[in-house]
Amino acid sequence: MTSDLLAFDQAHIWHPYTSATAPLPTQLVTSAEGVRLKLADGRELIDGMASWWCAIHGYNHPDINAALHTQLSAMSHVMFGGITHEPAITLCKTLIDITPEALQHVFLADSGSISVEVAIKMALQYWQATGQTKKRKLLSLRGGYHGDTFAAMSVCDPDTGMHHLFNQAVTPQFFTERPSSRFETPFSAASLADLEAVFAQHHADIAAIILEPIVQGAGGMWLYHPDYLKRVRQLCDHYHVLLIADEIATGFGRTGKLFACEWAEITPDILCVGKALTGGYMTLAATLTSSKIAQGISQNGGVFMHGPTFMGNPLACAAANASLKLLLNQDWAAQVKRLERTLKDQLMPAQQLSTVADVRVLGGIGIIEMVEPIDPVTAQAFFVARGVWVRPFGKLLYVMPPFIMSDADLTTVCQAMLDFAQHGAA
């Protein structure tokens, strides 16, 4: 049965970022518990990826399971047009309570990419509604990643990003050099030169700048200095440009702050969240904005032009409410600090390896950047054989473990990474 399932999968199912005719190998998972994935052949893998960074409480958590069962017995879905419900209201209230005070309006969406689309629409529609019709472009950081839909692709890195094939099809945007000042080193004002020049030259055309605060994720796992983010906020205020913070990957404690913007003590005009919002149970995202933006769009009878079919899905909102309750009612900051200590202790020795270009750690994020690109098939086989699940890309070996992962399990994951960095890449 397992071989039949895998054969069908290989022949007919298109997985993320793979060829349909020469697909990468896949592992058949039959269940998941805590931080472990159980394979069909009985093997277990310690999941260092938290299912693409979202399963912060691990798998099969009884509290989230119970919340879903309770909600399912009432209703799994109702349209959000002209109808509301308690799970969505509770979720939006919590999001408003835990994000900066100025963010008072919440738009619920299906996924992180859609929350970015919504944010871009908000920025463009705000300036149109307020008479600033020339402001139709976005500014983004090189090395950034904001999703796979078309508007989101337009603000991903235009040259080295995964969407380079679509450069001629997406809307051209403005780009500035990624911040050169590392998170843990003294800030250099020189890293602002290109940013300041782009603002000075093009601010009249720019509706918003979009960035991943402090951590550039899938675009390169780059950790940059909070002072850069502070200066972005100042430039936005000076030049009348909106600031969109994409916290889809960084939100809900991953960097050691509840939201990465807190490292710079700034408030964005628009905030995107997703991934860990439901604890990895269901797809859900949200875009928050200020009363200024909401009122600007809505003046003179204006309405915001977006409405997903599954917007505010009650099951997803119930999962999110249970996940946020779990997060906020425990000492998540201590959990993430513990992960950070273990990641630093275990991964920093890789700096001495000739195969390694850099090692970076912040909160529950650990990165080994290799000198040469990593072959994904070789890497996947290596890590599965070691009983761990790590999925590298490009030159990057990285982990974003569930917050509940023990030091012993995280050490096992990190030691496998070190062994691959030293021997597996040969």
UniProtKB/TrEMBL annotation:
It is found in: Cytoplasm. One of its GO terms (biological process) is biotin biosynthetic process. The keyword Electron transport does not apply. Catalyzes the transfer of the alpha-amino group from S-adenosyl-L-methionine (SAM) to 7-keto-8-aminopelargonic acid (KAPA) to form 7,8-diaminopelargonic acid (DAPA). It is the only aminotransferase known to utilize SAM as an amino donor. The gene is bioA. Its cofactor is pyridoxal 5'-phosphate. Gene3D superfamilies: Aspartate Aminotransferase, domain 1 (3.90.1150.10), Type I PLP-dependent aspartate aminotransferase-like (Major domain) (3.40.640.10). The record marks Y17 as: Participates in the substrate recognition with KAPA and in a stacking interaction with the adenine ring of SAM. It catalyses: (8S)-8-amino-7-oxononanoate + S-adenosyl-L-methionine = S-adenosyl-4-methylsulfanyl-2-oxobutanoate + (7R,8S)-7,8-diammoniononanoate. GO terms for cellular component: cytoplasm. Its EC number is 2.6.1.62. The modification N6-(pyridoxal phosphate)lysine is found at K275. Homodimer. The keyword S-adenosyl-L-methionine applies. Pyridoxal 5'-phosphate binds at G112, S113, D246, P308, T309. Substrate binds at W52, Y145, K275, G307, R391. Keywords: Aminotransferase, Biotin biosynthesis, Cytoplasm, Pyridoxal phosphate, S-adenosyl-L-methionine, Transferase. It is an enzyme of class 2 (transferase). This is Adenosylmethionine-8-amino-7-oxononanoate aminotransferase. Its main location: cytoplasm. PANTHER family: ADENOSYLMETHIONINE-8-AMINO-7-OXONONANOATE AMINOTRANSFERASE. The lineage of its organism: Bacteria, Pseudomonadati, Pseudomonadota, Gammaproteobacteria, Arenicellales. Pathway: Cofactor biosynthesis; biotin biosynthesis; 7,8-diaminononanoate from 8-amino-7-oxononanoate (SAM route): step 1/1. GO terms for molecular function: adenosylmethionine-8-amino-7-oxononanoate transaminase activity; pyridoxal phosphate binding.
